Amino acid sequence: MIKLFINISNVQKQYADKNNHQVDILKDINLGVDKGEFVSILGPSGCGKSTLLSIVAGLTPATGGEVLVADKVIEKPGKDRGMVFQQAALFPWLNVLENVVFPLKKEMPKKQAEAEAKKYLQMVQLSNYLAHYPHELSGGMQQRVAIARALAMNPDILLMDEPFGALDEQTRTRLHDQLETIWSETKKTILFVTHSISESIKLSDRIIVMGTKPGIILKDIKVDIPRPRHEHKKEMVELEEYIMGFLKKEIDKVIREELVHESKH
Amino acid sequence: MNPNIKRILFFTVIIAFWYTGSKLEWWLPIILPSPEKVMEALIIGFEDKTLIYDLIASFKRLAIGLGLSLIIGTGLGVLLAKSKTADETLGTVVLALQSVPSIIWLPLAIMWFGMNEKAVIFVVVLGGTFVMTLNIRVGIKNVSPLFIKAAKTMGVNGWDLYKRVIFPAAIPYVVTGSRLAWAFAWRALMAGELLSTGPGLGYTLRYASDFGNMALVIGVMIIIGIIGTIVDQLIFQRIEKSVLNRWGLES
Fold first, then answer.
1. In A, which residues are within 8 Å of B248 by CB distance?
2. What is the Cα–Cα distance from B9 to A189, expressed in whole angstroms?
3. Does B70 map to a domain?
4. Chain B residues near residue A87 by CB distance under 8 angstroms
5. Rounded to an integer, what distance in angstroms lies between the CA atom of residue B25 and that of residue A111?
6. Which of A195, B23, B129, B222 has its CA 20 to 30 A from that of A16?
7. Which residues in chain A touch residue B247, judged by CB atoms under 8 angstroms apart?
8. B88 phi and psi, to 5 degrees?
9. What is an annotated GO biological process for this record, any one (chain B) (predicted)?
10. What is the pLDDT of residues A61-95, one digit of tens each?
11. A1-74+163-234 has which fold?
12. Among A81, A100, A102, A160, which would you mutate to test the B interface (most chain B Cβ atoms within 10 Å of its Cβ)?
C-alpha cells in the first residue's frame, strides 16, 4: 500500500449505550488522503462522520485502529490540524483580530502574530472588521473568522465539520467560492464533513460516502468534473443523482428506525 | 412619557403627601417626622461629620468583607467545579449555608472575636462568600465544551486552558456572583452593625432609635437605600448587561 499523507486504518469507535450494549459508531474505516486533496465525508445524520473527523483531530480517541498523519500516530490535537466547527466557536471576550491571533500568541512576537492574523483575515475579506466583537457579526462572518483562525496556525490539514450547515443558502454559496479560492491559494489538505450532496460535489476532489449503523464507508468517489464547477451543471446533476441513489437506502434506514423508535414510546 | 419623568412625578407625589400629612398632623411626629425634620437631621449629621465617619467605617468593613468573600468564594467555586468529591461533600455544606441569613452567625462571631469590627466583618464575609462560590462553580461548569475543543485544536492545554479560555468564558458568572455577593454582604453589614458596635450606618441607626431621634433614623434609612440603589442599578447592572451582551448570553 502506498503511504499517503493521512492514513486512517481500521478505525473503530464503539460506545456503551444506556443498557450497556456496545454500539458501533464507526466500523473498519480505512481511508487514505493525499497531500493537498479536498475530500468530503458525506453521509446521513448519525453515520459517525463527525466522530471520524474528531478522531483525526485528536479530540476523540478511537477504540481501535489508528490514524497516521505524515507517518505520525495521532494521539492528541495538534497545530498541524486546524479545525472549523459548525458553530464558529469564537471567543466572545476577544475581538476579531484577537481571536485570530489566539493560536499564535505563544509562537511569535505580538507584532508578527498580528501581521500574520491580518493576512488571513484579508483572505476571508474581513480586514475592515478587526475591532469588532463576535456578537456584532453575522453567522457567515463569524464562520469566516473561524476559518481565518484555523488557517493562522498554518496547519497542513484543515478539518471542517459541517462548517456552513447553519448558514443561509446565499451565504453558503459565497463561502463555497471563498473556500475554493483559499484552498487553491494555500494548498491545504481539507477533510470536509457534510450531509449535503451538492456541497460535496461542488467542492471536493473525492467524496467518501458513509452509511449508518454501523458507520462504514460505502463508496469512495473521485469527482472528475473540471473547476470551476458551476460551468458544468449537467455533470454535477448526474453525479448528484448517482450518489442520491445509494444514499437513499441509508436515509430510509434512518427514517425507519426513527419511526420504530417513536412507536415504542 | 419618559420613565424618568414618571419617576420624578411619583416621588413628588409621595413627598407632598408626607409633607402635608406631617403639617396637618395626621400622625404623630414620633411615628413619622416631617421631611424637613429628616432633612435637618441629615444636614446636622453631615455637618458634625458623624454620618461621614459612619459612611467611611461602613464602607471599610464592606470593602474588607466583600473583598475577602469574593476571593474565598472564587477559590471555593473553582474547587467545587473541578473536584467531584469536594462538590459532593463541601458542596452540600455550601448549599446549606447559602440558604441561611448570615446574621445568625453574629452571636457566635461575638464569642469568637469579641464585640468588635472583626465579628461584623466575619458576618459580612459569610454573607457574600457562598453566593459567589455557587456562581463560580456554575460558571466554570457551564463553559461551552465547544470553546474547550476549539482551544485544544489550537494547542492550548492545562493551566493555559484555564487562564485563556475557561476563566474568561466564566466572566458573566463572576459579574453576577459579585453583584449578588455585594447585595448579601451589604444586608449582612447593616444587620451586623445594628446589633454590634459603631461607628457605622447601622450603629447610628440603632443609636438614633434608642434616643428617639426618628428624623435621623429615617435619614439613615434613606442613605442606606440610596447607596444600595446606586451600587446595584448604576454599577453592577450596567456591567452585567454589557458583559452578557458581549458574551452573547442575552440579545
1. 92, 134-135
2. 69
3. yes
4. 146
5. 75
6. A195
7. 92-93, 135
8. -75, -20
9. transmembrane transport
10. 988 889 989 888 888 998 889 999 999 999 999 99
11. Rossmann fold (3.40.50)
12. A102
